[in-house]
TrEMBL record:
InterPro entries to which the protein is assigned, alphabetical: Leu-rich_rpt, Leu-rich_rpt_typical-subtyp
Protein name: Disease resistance protein
Amino acid sequence: MNSETGQASAVVSSAQLSEMVVDQVKNNPKFQKTAEIILQNCGNIPAMNLFIAETLNNIAESEGDDWTLERALEEMASYCIIGRTLEDRIISLMRCGFEMLPRSDLALINCCWHSRQFFRKNHGVHYNVLITNWILEECFGLIDHFEKAYNQGYRILMKLIKCGLLKIENDNIVVMEKLARDVPDGRYHGFIWKPSLGLSGVYEGKNWLGLESVGHADGMIRTCEKDWKEISVLLVDGNHLCQEVIETYFSTLMNLRVLAVFSPRIKSLPISLTKLGNLCFLVLKDCDLLEKIDGLESLKALTVLEISNAKSLKHVPSDLFKSLSKLRSLNLSETGIERLPSSLSTLRELRSINLRGCCCLTSLPMLAKLRKLQLLDVSGATSLESFADKSINALQDLLLLDLSQTLVGHVPFLKDLKQLSRVSYRDCKKLIRLPNLRELSGLEVLDLSGALKIKEIQDNTFPENNVLKILDLSKTGVSCLPSSIRYLSNLELLNLSEMLNMVELEDDTFKNMARLRHLNLSKSPVENLPSLSGLANLRELKLHECSKLRTLPSLIALEKLEVLDISGCIFFEAFEDESFSHMTNLQLLDVSETRIEKMPGLSGLENLSQLLLRNCINLTKLPPLSSTKLKELDVCGAKNLREWEAELPEYMNQLEILNLSATRLRSPPLNNYTNLRELYLRDCELQMPLKLDNLTNLEVLDLSRTRISSLQTITRLCNLRQLLLTDCSDLHEIPTLEPLVKLEALHLQGTGIKKFPCRMAMVTRLMHLDLPDSADTLGLDWTGIKSLPGELNWDQCGMPSQLQNITNRPFMIVRNLDSFRIMKGIPDLWNSCFNKFFISVCPLKKGEEEEDKEIYELQDGTSFQDIYFHVMSYHVEYTPFLEIRGFESFPTGLEDALMKVEYVSLVENGFITSLSELGNANNLKGCWIWSCPNLENLMQEDKDNLNLSKNLDQDNLKFSENLDKDNLKLSENLDKDAKLMDNLEFLWISNLPILRSVHSTGRQFESVRNLKQLYVDACPQLETLFKSSQLSKNLEILHVKFCDRLKSICEPKEGCTLQKLHSLSLVELPELTDIGLKLPSLRTANIRNCPKLGENLHEQFGLKVRVEGDLTLQVKVWITNLEANELELLERSETCTSLIELKV
């Protein structure tokens, strides 16, 4: 083809491409030229054109999020000329499009790269198979709502089809474009880097195990058979199973082939599950309670097994893998296993082993016979010291080897593993020597970061013909780079940061690295850098805290540079270049904490979004700023800047963060920076009132230590979250803060303000408040306050008299636990708060745009505190009271409060597994526990101690004499538990999905001798409430309702008399057959919908006459008998001698 013909063809093809893009792309000055370059170098391929067009359209619609349209067009033009062959250039351009996927849509990126991996081994699948695989591989993270996950998968599927990466064919079969399948995953942490299951290689032929027929229904994903017994695929949440009888739930599902349970609340595998002989996939994610997997060996058809995040699982049965000969994928990540049985070595079909985060694992069995193994990930196995294999050369299919964060000192030989593309020894702190890598011809990623003991890399480590793209040597002990570094012509990322022994680099180090995009030398002791003239494709140059670096080589060749960071280079004084105008792509320029006196010209930096010049104390002049895309400007501490205010443009519409603190600024023109979110003017020499009324997006305003005297326009800043006025001594008043409904921090200390500008109840989100004087002097109005500031200088302002005089005890929300630390040092304040308020502690939630919705107050202001307390059977005399709500981990800082309060309410707390979590709460008289999903027993079980005692025989006397510290510690914990329950009089528990017993198997629950009131509601796993020996004889009120499996109140073989119980309520207990109690003082009984109790209810209450019929009729007869002849019925009762009222 001659040049004229080629140009004509390109024009025609570029016209076709222009028809696919939106007007904003088509009208961009750079589009036509880029389109012609693409089509000249890559040809006219419809699938490629569609993908490129949709990529540009998406960038145009979300302009400024990740890419600008100009940068994207320039990047595509540069990518499409990389490669010697047409195919290479097409793949390079497609890869460029992959890298432009929106970073904010992580699920889309994960699904895209997963599909690229999946379709390399599977030609076409039903779209349901693909979506289900995305869910199982955690492309959306851990799932808590299946309908939402499925819909998200469908959304992403449609996006990938629209952009041409996927195509949908007949019968809803999805395939991936070949061009997309061939794109190399060159990201640092590519999808293949961290798979969950590696499902792409586990299917046989087109046998999709029924996944093509799934849909979402009833809070789960399953196949859509009408008959429940026929379903073959089930993805279900553990909370759903808590509502079922787990031991028998799977007994009717014998056709099940795929089972995935997310967050199962089980300690061992249900027997019904271990009998699913047709099961091929068993996926149990986030099994934080699982302790045993006995019975798993009977699932002989398994090809995929995942049991993840089971920290309590310590042991794998020794013969397990002998039975699972078909296993192809094994995921035991984040478990507590200490060793794997040798039978693992027999799994000849195994493709993927994921042992990520198994921190107790100390060794691995032989792997050499697993010849089909592709993925081996033991990263985070921080106790792993050795491999059984000296060589894994037989694993010719191995793609990934990740030994990160292990204690391995010697690694197996890696010889001639041509498929191996990624190797990581990150943070292997005992690794001494790197194995020979010369014959790893497919190696693309090598990560040695943090391998401190590696001092040398052999000169012949890298062969001439290599495809290495990523090399990370950061934090190693290497003192000089190997000579073979010059062969790394395909390198795209080189990380040499924190290599403290490397003081010098050869001048030609980067000579052959024309494709290098990311270079990091941060915290390096080098004094001079090699020439950078060959790095025309460099995007990032990071030299942060290179404390000995004084100069930089010429940057004139770095036209594509996007990030330049030399912050913390304390001896750096000047750039060689007078202008950065050639760096039109530069987005971040950080020169903070250097000795620079003059900046190069910045006039050509049209894409600059961050300019950081913090503490550049020698800088005297700021160059003119012309970038219309500047989002952050920070010159804090540049105290020698003179007469530079005129250099600030009148309009910077994109500017979001402006820090001018500690400069000589006097009258900045800021009111036109309408997009500003953060403005810092601390320590500025302001000489005139600030005009800020147009800055309605402002969230942070710092005017501390300025001479500001008026803030009249502050009321217009309705999005303000932080108002910092510390030491503004000339400021004597501020307008009302009531319009600032989002205000979280207010600093007034050191001001001249004499009166607080609004009622405290109006600033409901206030987290931090610094007052200049006592609260009473300021005239603070605390009327109607619902929330204490998280931090308040109580020690200086004191307890307001208004709070001291409160008599109606309102709820007080505390979101910052520092309040308790401060109050602890002020006893009067501590006692006043707990005696005057019902204190509720909630976690601090960030990023919520709407005002918090308090549970105690409806939006119309109508209080339902009385209703709330009625439901909880709460009485006003229960004080001091503390509610802990919504914490996933123990709220550090509450320890002292828990030691002093007498009544505690625990609501929606994930950290509660037993009341032992409350520590030394020995004054506890009343406890409410509501919707705590991980609470299984009220107190820590001492079964291990009991079992130990039972098993001590004559042969174990030596063992008995050497009881270790762990058992002593357990005994101490049980004593603490006993003390914690000693004073308990009131216990109310509700909606606890996995609570199995109110009693405990050991001695400590016998200490609940003072319990007077017990309320149990919606605990579906309870079968027996307690044993008679463990029941308080002082119990006066017992109310139990909505416990679907409860069979007996007290074990009947140990019948118990409760002399003081006068109120009994049993409601909606469908399995209750026995009460097992004698109640001589019973005065009120409310028994409803307990159908199995009716047949012998007369015996339960000591009645001599049996009444026939259903329970409702029986009760009506008894009521009739009571009305007709009350004395006669009471005479017939031997147990309930004081029964006055029996309700339906």
